[in-house]
Amino acid sequence: MVSTPNSPQSGFFWKPLLITALALLAVRIGVLLLTPLTLQGDEAQYWTWSRDIDFGYYSKPPLIAWAIGFSTWLFGNAEWAVRLPSCLFQIATGLVLAMLGRRLFDDRTGLWAGIVWMTLPAVAFSSLLMSTDALLLTFWALALLQWDRLVKGGGWADVLVLAIAFGLGLNAKYAMSYFLLCAALHLVISREARRGLLTNALKPIVGFVLGGTMILPNVWWNAAHGWATVGHTADNANYQGIVLHFDKFGEFLGSQFGVFGPILFAAFILCLPWTRQRIAALTAERKFLIAFSVPILLLVCGLSLMSRANANWAATAFPAATLLTVHVLMSRPVWIKASVALHVAVALLLYGAVVMPDASVRLLGRDPFKAIPDWTDVAREVEAAAQASGTSVLLLDDRMITASLSYALRDRPLILRAWNHDAKIDHHYEMAWLYRPQDDGDRVLLVTPHGVDAIVDAFDQATVLPPITLHGRAGRDRTLELRLLEGAKQ
């Protein structure tokens, strides 16, 4: 029986759950404050988006920029403030899943589901990085809770919350649309769900339609910008026809043991029903959780087989998978506790390395962050070269370097502009920061890790300047070529 908030068991549920959440939150914020690792690549790009609030951006819907913008408005532009929303949203997801687990099963299952989620390897890692998944998963979990309420006779207040969760999820990442596929499958395999919506079918439809209207400003933005985000999403799929990539499939499937943890992912696979008869014999709760996890994993596994798939592309499968796996393992709680202990141990090692990267080199004999450069030093050298050259315009042709330098130079009076080698828009900076001589002047400092001939040929004069070494950790160095370019040819 599910306890009410005022029942004797309610304290058992809320007290340890909130203590765990607050303890993990404190540790992770401490790590964010102490780490010397600067913003890199995508994180820095999202920060630049947040400086120009809009309804859309080249590769993502707008919610991540809004979240960073709000956080940095409150706390300033330090790295920890940029990453803070991810940390908060991951904890929030755990709390929502705990409430759903309590509703579906009992207090103990809900409590362990929340704790397991908050300590998952992927969650421990991504809590230190600003990403769209952190936002998406909170709204996905909230939509799961509301969907369960609606198929069990929920009211119009539940419809409103479902609409908000679905709409904000779409504005976090288009993968929120998987929810519709999973909901449809749930109705197919669950007689209980169909019966619950027999006299209530209009409510979830209204919820999804209202939520869908929240993405319309982003659709308008895409239409006004040549469907940039849609095109980028299609490019990410990298479909190359019917060619089976078993190596990519193996890489993706293997990565899920790291994302979910080896014990939990193995238990999840073993508890799945693989025949129609076994599916029919499942409880309503298990059908619900399978419908919102297995289709996503199968879809992304198929994508990995046909082209490729990143480890996080199946992230929306794991809220329901967490609840299902914890429920199955409640009869053998030692496995849940062993998994949590393993995940906490791995997280502590990770956090120690993040806070003291130099110490990790001495202890491990290798640098886990060997490819991460210190952009503060690079920015200082670039600024000095610009001042010596008498120009305030930097011309760049690499997205990741543009993003990282834009953050590192955020307090400097320098203008960053992107060079487009062809007519195709390949990233945000080619769309929003494109170099135009008539607006930016014809005297610029070129900073590039690539060949310079094509760019130099577009100017009347080029002066070679000393290159800058981009020091990656553990000796992984790259060279940034510098040229003072004058007289842009129109």
Automatic annotation (TrEMBL):
The entry's keywords: Cell membrane, Glycosyltransferase, Membrane, Transferase, Transmembrane, Transmembrane helix
Domain Glycosyltransferase RgtA/B/C/D-like, first and last residues per copy: 59-221
Transmembrane segment boundaries: 12-34, 80-100, 112-140, 160-189, 201-221, 257-276, 288-307, 313-331, 338-356
Source species: Pacificispira spongiicola
Protein known as: Glycosyltransferase family 39 protein
GO cellular component terms given for this protein: plasma membrane
InterPro entries the record matches: LipidA_mod_glycosyltrf_83, RgtA/B/C-like
Main subcellular localisation: membrane
Subcellular locations according to the entry: Cell membrane
